[in-house]
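ARCHIVE CARD
CATEGORY: sequence design from structure
SOURCE FIELD: tokenized fold
FIELD CONTENT:
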């Protein structure tokens, strides 16, 4: 068989069911072989967009996403989204065709090893026919073991070489990885239990590790017994939101009430949460608390420059269960933060009564978020784009949903539509809604046609102030003419219809009610162009740029 055929078999053996990319001379034979094996191929309009979709899929499934590009310029197109995936620690393998090794003057030649290093990707090259399967196995092993994106660079001439069918023997990388869970050290559990037993106002912060380990019920039980309020990292927003003492995101997106409670805390239990600068707000949020951190990764310095007081190296669920069992055995029980007074404060924590004058033909984005949070059922997923407008749904949409994904890695706009399409694919074409800004959405507008072509049930809510929102507020504060940030957009609802989907221009809430009901009844690719008032400022931006907190 040809090397490209063997590589297609290896990718299928690794569990690749969906591959995103663009076809070219350096990957077309491999893509054809994948299709013959029953792997679904998604022909996208841009290679970088394809990687963003693979990123979104991988973040939901926890398994390596797969993207493919042709050589040279096709590979170079993935730079930004590759960096986003690297910063997000997304397991991903990029099959990148490479110029022929036999032709150093090939017009599309690119030093793909140096390019991969600049994009913070792992890198393996298939330099011989006999080494093709080992390189593939090593690429997937690194993607899984280190949770990072990896480039597999495959020269065109090597792909056309032959491997004897009898020599094809492939062991998938997941069979090489340890399957056992990491159990906590009893001494570490005992020391952490000592600290919790004396705490009066504990906070439990859950991160992606808590979600991945299935520790939700264990966290709820522990929190109830020790009187803890529950917060999340931004990337696990709304997880365990059904609890009466769930306070929302820990960080800049916290409510004022949550920040006040965090300031009173004397003990923080971080469950599968990295506790970086964003989660601790550079140490501002928990000034007097002792920290207990549970993680499968070795202990690292937290965002406030300190190491945790107690570190438990363990699977999150197992550690929380053992910690709770130890405390129950010792008879430890406390009401802590779980009082009627705190509960009453949390009921109104999200109230935002700040008045803004709305420009004619615009709506208040806060009302849009609150309405859609209620109108769209929880079995419809939620994806949050980047940029200034993301502060509205991030803080105001609190309903716990079947799936939720936030895009805030690398400070990059433009990822929302891409990862949302990956989420839809990962969930078997289950419906989802995306909130994004106009500038970010316009970056990859062409991929809405891809969503239409593959009949993805995705509603894109564009919070459209027709300007670069972040730069607008920064310009105002710095005394720069904000007019330079204004970029008018066409009727994006009409654009959605012209691309074969559905679309609506929303200048009043009645139109929003209609389009929401239509999507719930019949989910289909839809653009909702919400002309929001640019006068309304998110709470995070009020804090950062205007010195306000309400």
């Amino acid at each position: 068989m040809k090397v490209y055929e063997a590589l297609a078999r290896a990718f299928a053996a690794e569990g690749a069911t969906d591959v995103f990319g663009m076809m070219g001379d350096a990957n077309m034979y491999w893509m054809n072989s994948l299709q013959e094996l029953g792997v679904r191929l998604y022909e996208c309009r841009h290679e970088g967009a394809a990687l963003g979709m693979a990123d979104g899929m991988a973040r939901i499934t926890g398994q390596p996403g797969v993207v493919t590009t042709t050589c040279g310029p096709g590979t170079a197109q993935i730079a930004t989204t590759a960096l986003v995936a690297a910063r997000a620690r997304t397991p991903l393998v990029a099959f990148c065709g490479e110029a022929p090794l036999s032709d150093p003057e090939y017009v599309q030649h690119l030093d793909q090893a140096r390019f991969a290093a600049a994009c913070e990707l792992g890198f393996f090259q298939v330099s011989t026919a006999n080494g093709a399967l080992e390189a593939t196995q090593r690429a997937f092993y690194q993607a899984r073991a280190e949770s990072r994106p990896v480039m597999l660079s495959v020269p065109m001439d090597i792909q056309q070489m032959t491997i004897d069918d009898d020599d094809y023997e492939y062991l998938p990388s997941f069979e090489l990885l340890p399957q056992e869970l990491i159990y906590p050290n009893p001494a570490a559990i005992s020391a952490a239990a000592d600290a919790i037993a004396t705490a009066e106002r504990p906070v439990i912060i859950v991160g992606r590790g808590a979600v991945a380990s299935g520790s939700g019920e264990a966290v709820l039980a522990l929190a109830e017994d020790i009187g803890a309020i529950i917060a999340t990292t931004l990337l696990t927003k709304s997880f365990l939101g059904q609890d009466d003492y769930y306070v929302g995101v820990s960080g800049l997106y916290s409510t004022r009430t949550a920040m006040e409670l965090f300031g009173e805390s004397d003990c923080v239990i971080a469950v599968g949460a990295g506790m970086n600068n964003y989660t601790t707000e550079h140490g501002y949020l928990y000034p007097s608390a002792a920290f207990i951190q549970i993680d499968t990764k070795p202990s690292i310095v937290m965002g406030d420059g300190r190491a945790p007081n107690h570190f438990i190296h363990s699977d999150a669920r197992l550690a929380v269960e053992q910690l709770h069992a130890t405390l129950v055995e010792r008879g430890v029980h406390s009401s802590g933060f779980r009082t009627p007074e705190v509960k009453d404060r949390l009921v109104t924590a999200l109230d935002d009564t700040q008045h803004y004058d709305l420009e004619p033909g615009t709506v208040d984005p806060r009302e849009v978020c609150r309405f859609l949070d209620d109108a769209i059922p929880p079995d419809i997923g939620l994806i949050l784009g980047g940029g200034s407008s993301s502060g509205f749904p991030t803080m105001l949409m609190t309903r716990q949903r079947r799936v939720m994904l936030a895009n805030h890695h690398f400070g990059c706009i433009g990822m929302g539509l891409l990862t949302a399409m990956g989420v839809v694919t990962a969930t078997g074409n289950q419906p989802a809604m995306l909130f994004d800004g106009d500038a970010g959405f316009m970056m990859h507008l062409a991929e809405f046609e891809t969503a239409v072509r593959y009949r993805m049930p995705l509603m894109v809510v564009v919070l459209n102030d027709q300007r670069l929102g972040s730069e607008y507020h920064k310009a105002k504060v710095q005394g720069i003419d904000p007019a330079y940030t204004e970029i008018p957009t066409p009727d994006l609802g009409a654009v959605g219809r012209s691309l074969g989907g559905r679309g609506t221009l929303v200048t009043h809430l009645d139109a929003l009610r209609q389009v929401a009901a239509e999507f719930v009844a019949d989910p289909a690719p839809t653009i909702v162009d919400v002309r929001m008032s640019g006068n309304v400022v998110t709470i995070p931006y009020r804090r950062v740029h205007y010195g306000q907190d309400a």
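CARD ANNOTATION: The longest strand covers residues 92-98. Residues 343 and 384 are 28 Å apart (CA to CA).
SHELF: design records, drawer C
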